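INFO batch 0412 | record 1 of 1 | parsing
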Amino acid sequence: MSRLRLSIFLLFILVATAAGVLFVHPESSYVDKYYPWRLGLDLVGGSYLVYEVDMSQIEPADQDIVMNGLRDVIEKRVNLFGVSEPRVTASESNGSYRLNVELAGISDVNEAINQIGATPFLQFSEITINSDSENEEPEFIPTELTGRYVKRASIIFDNITNLPQVFLEFDGEGADLFEQLTGNNIGKPIAVFLDGELISAPRVSEKIPGGRAQITGDFTIEEATALVERFNAGALPAPINLINQQTVSATLGQDSLQKTVKAGVWGTLAVIIFMILYYRVSGFYAAIALFIYTILTLSVFKLFVTMTLAGIAGFVLSIGMAVDANILIFERIKEEIKKGASKAVAMEEGFNRAWPSIRDSNLTTILTTLILYYFTSSFVKGFALTLMLGVVVSMFTAITVTRNLLRIFSRK
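INFO prediction complete | emitting tokens
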């Protein structure tokens, strides 16, 4: 690549870095008006809710599956409220199952509680007549078919009355359960309960395959629409009950944030001083690349990531890994010079020979962060995401930026 092209590329990187400084600066009021930093519960405060899960109708073998489903549904629900990085965790103690929900920076806690509690619990029950009772009152026997198996919901209208109805489509397992339920109750009614309230009891005329059902009731269009939206957002596979609510202060998080940022700044300065003292001019170029890396990474975080203390820890860790790449490169360059190669040849060979080690080490780190992101809770996900993004950006700055600086400014 010619020196002119290298200079243009480097100028583009410097301009992008300067724009990034304005973009990530916390006191840039104009930028923050449209692109504010998104901060988690531990940094901005919020609410902490504890729900108890009713597992009385769930088989022991299915309880872990139900808890995972509940966690996913609640996370999906609170995401719809615009809550920053909701953290939903499940816990079990002495046979009691609970969901812990953290809502960061939410303005109306009561509204969030109402919305989460309004997520419907759908239950299909068989009906039998208790002959021992004088009034022969019906007895409702819950079945395995619940909102856990709902695939999607939509509104349809009765051809005769033109009243709104809720159309449900079950997943594969739910379709089998629904077919078996209707087959066992031909000529009998099936009760449909929503949050413990009987809303419909249609009579089964034949076995219904395919996993499709209609819920009829005295719905208005608004009620049917709200019900469909909640089912599509996720029907609860088991009832939940709010047992504790706490308001979380951000004071501790802000104190930890200040200490973490201060430690990160001093650590970065110490690394820069070491690089300059040990590698002299090359270390100075590595320091420039590290500064560019920091600004570009923070810009990516502000655009796509909700920052937490765990996420900041992942970012600080990635700074050290960014310097590791430059150290590998510079040591390879020194080895090539000892072999008698000219500085220009040693520089190119140093980058080329160090690249496989840098690539492999960073790929293994990225693989680890992907595993952490997809198989852990939201708290660890924040750490994994920032570390992964930091490693990706560091590979770019360590190889591209440092290499072009050396190519342009180093003497033959």
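INFO post-check: The domain at 122-235 is CATH 3.30.1360.200 (Gyrase A; domain 2).
INFO record closed
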